Amino acid sequence: MKNDSLRMYDDFTDVVVGEKFVSADAVLEVLKKYSSTISVFDLMKVNGEMIEDSKYVQDSYKQKSHAVYAKYFLGRIRDISGDDHRYDKSIDKGEFIDSVATLRSYHINESHTSKTKFPLIYGIVSIYTTFILEEPIHPVGTPFPGSLEVEEHDGKYYCPVKDANLESPNAVCKMCIAEQLEF
After folding, report:
1. Is residue 181 included in any domain, yes or no?
2. Do 91 and 131 form a contact (C-beta atoms < 8 A)?
3. Does 55 fall in a domain?
4. What are phi and psi of 170, to 5 degrees?
5. Do 99 and 175 meet the contact criterion of CB atoms below 8 Å apart?
6. Residue 71: phi, psi to the nearest 5?
7. Residue 104, in any domain of the structure
């Protein structure tokens, strides 16, 4: 039987069929529908999975990165569910279709190892952040090894690892609005 959470990607396909541009409000409605399926218990399980997955990461980096992920990544689910703004804008159809394909592939691959709703949350938050909020997927201040982090200068976002991950088949770096941080 098809994974129920994968149906989100079919719903996105329905939103783009026959349209030149994609309505941000239509995308938000799909995101709200699926974010409402995520309970506080699901978020707790995902948080536990993130902690387990980072058990071999250096402590100082692990603590700071986990705080960012818990606040912005898991916390965004609540933000999405309660987002009653009207986003009177269009999303580029080609970029959106490419992003949905990348996230669907990631979701399928991660569903083999994740026992939680992490793949669904990852897809929801990535689309919301990129296409609705027009912010980088990793928020400003997200730490990366080497004491580097996502930065913002004059309204542009910069990531220290974007170029290094562009060729990864399931990396969301391709869809992220951040540019490569030069250092």
Report:
1. no
2. yes
3. yes
4. -110, 10
5. yes
6. -70, -50
7. yes
What's the CA gap between 10 and 137, in Å, rounded? 22
DSSP state of 178: P
Residue 164 lies in a domain: no
Cα–Cα distance for residue pair 130/115, rounded to 1 Å: 26
pLDDT single digits (tens) 107-137: 998 888 888 999 999 999 999 999 999 999 9
Residue-range definition of the domain harbouring residue 29: 4-140
Give CA–CA dist 9/123, Å, rounded. 9
Distance CA 138, CA 173 (A): 9
Two structure tokens written together for 181: 């941080």
pLDDT by residue (tens digit) across 74-97? 899 999 999 999 999 999 999 999
Which pTM value belongs to this model? 0.91
> How distant, in Å, are the alpha carbons of 15, 46, 80, 143 from that of 64?
37, 17, 24, 7
CA–CA dist 145, 157 (Å, integer) = 18
Structural domain total, the chain: 1
Rg (CA), the chain: 16
Q: Are strands 21-23 and 90-92 parallel, antiparallel or unpaired?
A: antiparallel
